[in-house]
Amino acid sequence: MTRTPVNVTVTGAAGQIGYALLFRIASGQLLGADVPVKLRLLEIPQGLKAAEGTAMELDDCAFPLLRGIDITDDPNVGFAGANVALLVGARPRTKGMERGDLLEANGGIFKPQGAAINAHAADDIKVLVVGNPANTNALIAQAAAPDVPAERFTAMTRLDHNRALSQLAKKTGSSVADIKRLTIWGNHSATQYPDIFHAEVAGKNAAEIVNDEAWLSDTFIPTVAKRGAAIIEARGASSAASAANAAIDHVHTWVNGTAEGDWTSMGIPSDGSYGVPEGLISSFPVTCKDGKYEIVQGLEINDFSRGRIDASVQELAEERDAVRALGLI
Ligand code: NAD
Ligand code: LMR
């Protein structure tokens, strides 16, 4: 039987993450090796020509699963019938810009995109926000889409999760494949909290194996939380291939499920679990099955973790209050 193609919309398609992402989607790595896709590339007018060049290259790959590419600068066209939307395009912080200016500039992008998703996307739309500040941009888009179930709006903390896996594997002399049940809590920002207290390395508790609170506080947590800035410093541009890889992982896991006995981290609207105020888009440990996710319940949160989760959630609440004051939610 021929499957109906899944419509995947990518915003910021002409940017560096877009370039690292589109070929992997078209090759089947986002949704599965048997799932045909149609791509919609949404750009601003200045980005259209470069997006056309990328579309030419996608054609030249002759991907068997790629059933069409549309390019537009109109969100109402870009999200029409979208089943998956990857919101990558965002306004970067430039010199002299205050945090409030950044939130306002991104509100001008994510509010109309949320409204266009509300009006035109398919009923099963799943949204991943990558563009920073990702959690609060997701909140803005979600607030502008009242007819879409709130839980379909998610923000990317999978890159942080993958970064934490690699750092922990190095410290414990293990392979990332041996590590399970690691969690990123909170915001995709320097306040995020990578938590190894429930993680396992080859079946043993990671915190007990590490047994080094100074390493956790002074090395592991800051290395993971400030990795984005370290990459900008080293590369002169923010992470792109690893960010695209994490976006692929996030959606693939959401659609195809987490492995038995493991979980992942996603920025999702809080239901009040673990003391995170309802509605904030915060990172949690989640399991995925049949295209849905659930927060892992019942984890004991020690004092070390509690203070760090609370600090990141406090930052999310401040961002929410700032965009509320700007009339964006
Ligand atoms: P980039 O500047 O290379 O590309 C951004 C693209 O978005 C540009 O082509 C631009 O024209 C386009 N764009 C801007 N406004 C748009 C709009 N309204 N509609 C459609 N397209 C629009 O940036 P990049 O390196 O690809 O990064 C994109 C975003 O992802 C940034 O905000 C970056 O900070 C963020 N990021 C997030 C994570 C994460 O883990 N959540 C990781 C890395 C980067
Ligand atoms: C990252 O984590 O690599 C990015 O979010 C950094 C950035 O500010 O673009």
UniProtKB/TrEMBL annotation:
Q: Which InterPro entries match?
A: L-lactate/malate_DH (IPR001557), Lactate/malate_DH_C (IPR022383), Lactate/malate_DH_N (IPR001236), Lactate_DH/Glyco_Ohase_4_C (IPR015955), Malate_DH_AS (IPR001252), Malate_DH_type2 (IPR010945), NAD(P)-bd_dom_sf (IPR036291)
- Give residues annotated as binding NAD(+): 12-18, 106, 113, 130-132
Answer whether the UniProt record assigns the keyword NAD to this protein.
yes
Q: What is its EC number?
A: 1.1.1.37
Reaction catalysed by this enzyme: (S)-malate + NAD(+) = oxaloacetate + NADH + H(+)
Lactate/malate dehydrogenase N-terminal domain span:
7-146
Pfam families cross-referenced by the UniProt entry: Ldh_1_C, Ldh_1_N
Which residues take part in binding substrate? 93, 99, 132, 163
Q: What's in the keyword line of the UniProt record?
A: NAD, Oxidoreductase, Tricarboxylic acid cycle
CDD domains given for it? MDH_chloroplast-like
Identify the residues that the record assigns to the Lactate/malate dehydrogenase C-terminal domain, covering every copy.
157-323
Positions of the catalytic residues = 188 (proton acceptor)
The record's similarity note reads: Belongs to the LDH/MDH superfamily. MDH type 2 family.
The task this protein performs is described as: Catalyzes the reversible oxidation of malate to oxaloacetate.
Q: What PANTHER family does the record tag this protein with?
A: MALATE DEHYDROGENASE
User: What is the name attached to this protein's record?
Assistant: Malate dehydrogenase
What organism is the protein native to? Streptomyces hiroshimensis
